[in-house]
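Example with several molecule types.
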Amino acid sequence: MKILLISTCKHKLHEEEFVKPIVQILKKEKKEFEIQHYTKLSNLEEYSHIIICGTALKDNAYIKYNFDWIKEFKKPILGICAGSQIIAKVFDEKILDGQEIGAVQVKKIKEDKIIENINLNEIYCLHNKYSRVPKGFNLILKTTHPQLFRNYNVICCLFHPEVRNENIILNFLNI
Amino acid sequence: MKLAVLYSGGKDSTYALLKAKKENEIVCLLNVKSKNNESYMFQSAANNILEFQSSALEIPLLQKETLGEKELELEDLKKLIEEAKERYKIVGLVTGTIKSVYQSSRIQKICNDLDLWCFNPLWQIDEEEYLEELFENNFEVIIVGIAAYPLTKDFLGKKLDRKLANKLKELNVSQIGEGGEFESFVINSPVHKRKLEIIDSDNNMTGENSGELVIKEVKLK
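Resulting structure tokens for the full complex:
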């Protein structure tokens, strides 16, 4: 198992905030991983799982980029925040304006293995954009925005599971 | 990029400054001087000597007083950041926030409102890994405030080294004081141009397990 973490950060310093917390989780679990920036991806076939990390509120550069490779990648992908929006866009949803910042209460819509052992009382959100649920995906958690939705292999998580809900990442690695 | 650092003089904001300085220009330090030593947002210990810290770092300091009332202190912070934007043309703010969603989300909102980048390079950092990085980077950190059992006045003024970190672990206290158990002050680090030396200080205890080190005299070496 080798995991790819994709950085969506325009500024390197933001990787400390949006990529490194996930690196720490993977290190703790003794997982093998590599980090690539979304503008310089290579050898995707080498990886068993991909996590597309989030980025800063003010960083919207990823929106205009082409991520069509996601449709061809047949192994598990988890998109966090910006990553979630990227995946939704690939599956034909628009990226919409909508802000949630801080700890937010979430409503469970559907049971799913991805939310086993997570803290549903408060999730940590940091976004100015969101998407609706693409066709073929099932909504699992929502606030005023859809927070967690998936088809079999592809999981979109608008909130930040690396803050207080790292079991989502561990559950993802068990797919 | 021209950035400001939300700065307390403590280890977290100083380490965030070190990280940010590698690829950016740090043009000013911002400090909200709270009259409430139980503020959820700001450190009060040792904020009377931040001018010296600013001189030691050779980075200008913008400081603003606040009564420290919940939420109202955020308006004072916003005004301070606006002033930095105006005077120093900053495009972003750096903080040393580690775990506090309360602090982080409020600062994120302010930066978002002011169209500034917000950087939190210590966000969710592993406690032991972080401490090790501080030691490896030769940070000289002292304890200037305590606010939790079983910490007593004996801890005030003590250097946060491996020995003290082990002691804190034995006492089941966060080794980085992340739950507000203690407040720190950096007297030397790789970002310091000059070291600070504390000449005279006193303990101001407000309870058996709460109090501050009042620094009366300090000099730059």
